[in-house]
């Protein structure tokens, strides 16, 4: 059955390849990007190859929650149903790591924006729908002072790994809260896949990006028994245990509460 699938960060890397694969299967796509020309190019490439596929595009810089809110409004106005939301967009390295709101961009793009977008779109996602949140094998204990912008983290990878544990924690809590659906999974798509993030971050060619795109297609469409909130580790090729902090209710609630407070402060 044809599904309507929103992919953030669909202009490059794993998100772009996932979009191409889902279009080839005939699914309707909402493609998100931050760069209008790049998004237009991707839309016309996919549209040219798969003329019967319904495509729409949305622009938002996810480091700016007001832009995320604007995108969510646009999607809510244009669509009645989103079967699968793939919170794929992510950032590891960038010249300016502090946003205009004084926060580390990794926390904003990789954690705050997905939570805010998901909450805004939840009414459109049916109970048999799915939410996939991109995690990583890199997960480090979250420093809530750093999350709030009170402390700066020295290394790109440290901020990134903390943001990825945070989204894994939130995925588990959200999955437990949404007991009747939609299904929520966090996903490590596979490590060191050869995207801009990995080439720019580590100076290596990296592994086949299909590894990541194929698992996102699979988790979007195929049936799985794993309970909502589970973590899929594509390095192992199976659902598995995330960082122990993501299984610790008190730690997870503390991080998710801090994230929600920040989102509230930035959007009210
Ligand atoms: N590659 C890996 O080995 C690996 C491993 C574990 C997890 N992941 C996760 O997989 C996801 C996809 O990563 P990737 O490797 O495909 O990276 P990528 O090639 O760098 O693509 C990232 C996507 O996110 C978009 N993006 C980045 N910052 C943004 C912002 N401020 N606002 C809006 N969009 C933004 C990019 O837009 P532009 O096209 O404009 O740059 C691009 O579409 C990320 O969440 C990443 O953390 C990747």
Can you characterise this structure?
The chain is of the alpha/beta class. It has one domain (4-267): NAD(P)-binding Rossmann-like Domain (Rossmann fold). 45% of the residues lie in helices and 13% in strands. The protein is built from nine helices and eight strands. It has helices at residues 13-24, 36-49, 65-78, 105-121, 144-147, 156-177, 196-202, 210-221, 249-267; strands at residues 4-7, 28-33, 55-59, 84-87, 130-134, 183-188, 231-233, 238-240. It has an eight-stranded mixed sheet with strand order 3-2-1-4-5-6-7-8, sandwiched between helices. Strand 2 (28-33), helix 2 (36-49) and strand 3 (55-59) form a beta-alpha-beta unit. The termini are far apart. The mean pLDDT is 98. The chain binds NADP nicotinamide-adenine-dinucleotide phosphate. NADP nicotinamide-adenine-dinucleotide phosphate binds at residues 9, 11-15, 33-35, 38, 61-63, 88-91, 109, 134, 136, 188-189, 191-193, 195-198.
Give the helices and strands, then pairings:
Blueprint (H helix, E strand, L loop, with lengths): L3 E4 L5 H12 L3 E6 L2 H14 L5 E5 L5 H14 L5 E4 L17 H17 L8 E5 L9 H4 L8 H22 L5 E6 L7 H7 L7 H12 L9 E3 L4 E3 L8 H19 L1
Parallel strand pairs: 1-2, 1-4, 2-3, 4-5, 5-6, 6-7
Antiparallel strand pairs: 7-8
Helix pairs in contact: 1-8, 3-4, 4-6, 4-9, 6-9
The structure holds NADP nicotinamide-adenine-dinucleotide phosphate.
- The overall average pLDDT, rounded, is 98
Q: The CATH topology, please?
A: Rossmann fold
Helix percent band: 40-55%
- The backbone outline, from C-alpha atoms, is globular
Give the strand line-up of the largest sheet.
3-2-1-4-5-6-7-8
Most strands sheet: 8 strands, mixed
The helix/strand series, from N terminus to C terminus, equals EHEHEHEHEHHEHHEEH
Note poorly predicted spans.
Answer: none
Oligomer: single chain
What is the number of helical segments per DSSP (H or I, 4+ residues)? 9
Q: What is the H level of CATH, i.e. the homologous superfamily? A: NAD(P)-binding Rossmann-like Domain
How far is the first residue's CA from the last residue's CA?
39 Å
Q: Please tell me the CATH architecture by its name.
A: 3-Layer(aba) Sandwich
Q: Gyration radius, to the nearest Å? A: 17 Å
């Amino acid at each position: 059955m044809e599904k309507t699938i929103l992919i953030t960060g669909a202009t490059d890397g794993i998100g772009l390849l996932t979009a191409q694969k889902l279009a080839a299967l005939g699914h309707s796509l909402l493609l998100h990007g931050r760069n209008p020309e790049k998004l237009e190019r991707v839309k016309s490439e996919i549209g040219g190859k798969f003329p019967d596929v319904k495509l729409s595009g949305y622009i938002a810089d996810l480091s700016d929650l007001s832009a995320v809110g604007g995108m969510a409004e646009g999607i809510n106005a244009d669509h009645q149903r989103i079967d699968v939301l793939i919170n794929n967009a992510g950032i590891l390295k960038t010249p300016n790591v502090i946003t205009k709101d004084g926060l580390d961009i990794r926390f904003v793009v990789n954690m705050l924006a997905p939570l805010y977008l998901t909450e805004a779109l939840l009414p459109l996602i049916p109970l048999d729908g799915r939410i996939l949140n991109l995690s990583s094998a890199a997960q480090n204990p979250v420093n809530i002072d750093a999350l709030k912008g009170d402390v700066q983290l020295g290394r790109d990878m440290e901020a990134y790994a903390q943001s990825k544990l945070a989204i894994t924690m939130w995925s588990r809590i959200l999955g437990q809260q949404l007991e009747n659906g939609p299904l929520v999974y966090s996903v490590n798509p596979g490590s060191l896949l050869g995207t801009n993030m990995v080439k720019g971050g580590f100076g290596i060619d990296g592994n086949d990006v299909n590894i990541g795109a194929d698992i996102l297609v699979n988790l979007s469409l195929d049936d799985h028994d794993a309970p909502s909130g589970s973590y899929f580790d594509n390095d192992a090729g199976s659902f598995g245990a995330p960082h122990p902090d993501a299984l610790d209710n008190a730690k997870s609630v503390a991080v998710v509460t801090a994230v929600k407070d920040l989102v509230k402060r930035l959007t009210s």
